[in-house]
Every structure is written in C-alpha cells, then in structure tokens.
Amino acid sequence: MSEMTIEQPSSKERASRQRIPVAILGATGSVGQRFIQLLAAHPWFRIHEVVASDRSAGKAYGDAADWKLETSLPTEAADLRVRSLGDDLESALVFSSLDASVAGEAEELYASRGCAVVSNSRNHRMAPDVPLLIPEVNCDHLDALKVQKKRRGGKGFIVTNPNCSTIGLAMAVAPIERAHGIDVMHAFTMQAVSGAGYAGVSSFAILDNVVPYIGGEEEKVESEPRKILGRWTPEGFKDAPMKISAHTNRVPVLDGHTICVSLRFRQSEDLRRHFPIEKLIDDVREALVAFRGEPQRLGLPSAPEQPIVLLPDSDRPQPRLDRNAQNGMAVTVGRLRPCPVLDIRLVALVHNTIRGAAGAAILNAELLHARKLLP
Ligand code: NAP
Description:
Blueprint lengths: L10 H8 L1 E6 L4 H11 L4 E8 L8 H4 L10 H4 L3 E3 L8 E4 L3 H13 L3 E4 L15 H4 L5 H9 L4 E4 L3 H17 L1 E10 L11 H4 L10 H12 L2 E3 L2 E3 L4 E8 L6 E9 L2 H7 L2 H14 L3 H5 L9 E3 L8 H4 L8 E8 L5 E7 L3 H17 L5
Parallel strand pairs: 1-2, 1-4, 2-3, 4-5, 5-6, 7-10, 12-13
Antiparallel strand pairs: 7-11, 8-9, 11-14, 13-14
Helix pairs in contact: 2-15, 8-10, 8-12
The chain binds NADP nicotinamide-adenine-dinucleotide phosphate.
NADP nicotinamide-adenine-dinucleotide phosphate binds next to helix 2, helix 5 and helix 15.
C-alpha cells in the first residue's frame, strides 16, 4: 500500500493565513497602490479583497491597475479579482481610498455591514462622531467611537485620517501646541502632483508652472488641525482655539508636500516678556525632537521611531531628499527660526501618499487592532 503524504503548510504560509484579511476600496488609484505596496509586507494584515469602479471590476488587479510605484507589483495582489463597489466583502477591516464622489456613501454602507472602515477620504473627517486620527497626537479621540456606534448602530464604524497637507502641519505643530499653545498660524503649502490622484493634473498644466489653487484644500488645512489638536469630551469634539490661514499650491514635485508655517503663541506677550526668542526656539526644538506618542510606546509595526525628524541644515527639508524619512512615516522639519511678524516659523515636509494617506490609515488600523477595537 502506498503511503499517502499530506503536505503541511510552511511556517511562512501559516503566518500568512493568520494575518487579518483586509479589503481596499479604490485599490487601483494613487493611494490605493500605496496600500497594496505597504500591506503586501505587513506583519498583521493580509490583502484579501480589492475594490474599484466599474471600469476595473471583474479584471485581475494587475490588469486593472496601471502600476506606477517604484517597487514591482506584489504577486499576492496581481491575481486578485477587482470587486465592484457595494459587493459583499469577507474582510471586516476595510481601507478606503475612494474618490470623494463615492466615498461618503460607500464607507457608510460598509460600516453599517459591521466593518471597521479606515478612510483617507474627506467625506467623514469633520463629522461630530468620527475620529480624525493621528495616533501620536490624539488617540484619545477614539473614545468617539462609542458614541458613533451607539448613534449609528451595529459593530462597524468609520475612522479617518487627515488631508495629506494637514497631517504634516498638525504633526509638526502638535508639540508646540502642547508646550506653549498656538494662537494664530499661517500655512503656505507646495503640494506634489501625486496628491491629485492619477487623473489629477496633466503634465501640460504643471510642468514649468505653479498652480495657486487646489479646490477645497485651504478649507481643509484651516479646519482639520483645529479638530485634531482639540479634545474629545463627553459633549463631543472641542476644537483647539487657534486661527489658521492657508494658501495651498500645486507644484511640479512627484511626491512630498512642503508646508511653510509661521505662528504666534497663545501667551505671546507674556512669553516674549519673560524669555528671549532664542530660548523659546530652543524649547520648541527640544519639544520636536522629544515628541513621541502611542504608536512608539506600543511599538506598532508602521510607527516611525522618531515621528518628527528635525534637520539642522538651512536648506532642508526638500521633497526629493527627505520625503522617505523613516520609511515615509516621519514628518521632517527644518528652518526653525524667529518670525519678525508672529513668533516663530518653520518648514515641514510630509510624504503625501505614505504618512499623508495609506501609511497613516495603516497606522490607524494598527492602533485599532492593538486596542482590540477591530470587529
Ligand atoms: P485616484 O488616483 O483618482 O483613485 C481613485 C480610486 O477611486 C480609484 O481606485 C478608482 O477606481 C476609484 N473610483 C473612482 N470612482 C469610482 C466609482 N464610481 N466607484 C468605485 N470606485 C471608484 O485618487 P487618489 O489620489 O488615490 O485619492 C483617493 C482618495 O484619497 C481621495 O478621496 C483623496 O482625496 C484621498 N487622499 C489622497 C491623497 C493623495 O496624496 N493622493 C492623500 C490623502 C487623501 P478606478 O481606477 O477603477 O477608476
């Protein structure tokens, strides 16, 4: 009698099966491809389902997505069949990088079906029961989920990450807000073309050019940091009491949003009376370098060791040189100096599709998993 051999899965296969299956809505787009790239090697999550528009549905992911990233298309994603928006999904964790025209309704639908929806899109960011989360800054805002679930019913929920410029701005100034409080802030952005999505800006419009308008962007940069830096209370979110004025510009850079910031402290006159500006700059420098949060404490897989990297060189940060700091998950800050009109000024840089989008959402999901909040 021949002996039957049953092939045992390798330890790598077993580990892969134990990872949490996830779905990506808008998987074919600029942010969607970053999700695929970052999740392919993720220790906790496994790409199980990909969803896009009817243009892509039914095709293999490798055929539907016009892969644009510097690394090759991960084999585990290439053969997945692209699902239609609205299809029933097996994954209880759903990342969303859908176009805003469809994200609002679709995210609500999947949350109502019991999924944790971790979104990049703008639609629910300012909702009174939805955390606009940066885990290093405001993980206490997750308490809003209890209210959200009660209000909307069911086990599912929506968590969002900020606009791609906002996250760079909010992270760079969070330690300053904590140390001294911010009264007024001027933010001037120079935003990469990948921030507009693949179909966003034609090369003819952006090469040799700067476009001083990005629809809806100034409003986001002026409102989102106030929610992020504010507090969750039993009565709801209380915005940080700062005023923000933003100019947002599209520039011919591929990836990486640069933000020039000038700000005035809340107790400006008092502080300036008691301390020379050099002392205040030193305080801010120390606060930026020492800045750490819950992801670092928990050792989350995507957490940068140092969320804010302070560069001493007078001509940094620069997108081409600095956008990949700490795997694209850190915000780099430079040119910290006195401001002749307000108090201080600085330049911040964020990789818009990593820390500004897919990487931010993945870190949010890691925090949800670590806190046992995933359905
Ligand atoms: P994108 O490149 O244009 O990709 C949009 C995705 O949405 C594609 O997968 C597309 O599928 C899908 N989609 C469009 N219409 C659809 C429909 N009617 N039904 C189902 N799927 C549909 O845009 P993106 O830059 O990745 O941005 C995605 C979202 O993230 C946006 O809400 C954006 O505001 C936000 N965001 C972007 C960035 C950034 O740096 N790019 C940063 C933060 C947040 P098809 O390929 O099949 O058309």
